[in-house]
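Action item from last meeting closed. Structure (109 res):
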């Protein structure tokens, strides 16, 4: 199926402590997940800040017309349960997008 017929998706990575090799592996996992689930991965956002910043996350998804966000895992986003909840709310409630976890094993968290 051509990419134009696939539903658009964005990827999100927390990379503040990750090496280039780890980032490349995480990007590959997101791309493979998107391909396996018939999603067109348009863009991957590398969050370089240590603090989880979700303020513009919903806007980014809505403005891009994207209803799917792929992350390596919720543990990759944050190990803190409240921070994960806030992240999920920004994606699922604010942007009305679906959150996908690409892998169960976390690399580069």
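Sequence:
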């Amino acid at each position: 199926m051509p990419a134009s017929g696939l539903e658009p998706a964005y990827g999100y990575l927390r990379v503040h402590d990750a090496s280039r090799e780890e980032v490349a592996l995480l990007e590959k996992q997101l791309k493979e997940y998107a391909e396996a689930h018939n999603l067109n991965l348009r863009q991957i956002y590398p969050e370089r800040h240590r603090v989880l910043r979700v303020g513009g996350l919903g806007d980014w998804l809505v403005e891009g017309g994207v209803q799917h966000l792929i992350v390596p895992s919720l543990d990759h986003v944050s190990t803190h349960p409240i921070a994960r909840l806030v992240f999920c709310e920004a994606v699922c409630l604010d942007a009305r997008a679906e959150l996908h976890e690409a892998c169960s094993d976390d690399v580069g968290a």
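Note appended to the action item: The mean pLDDT is 90.
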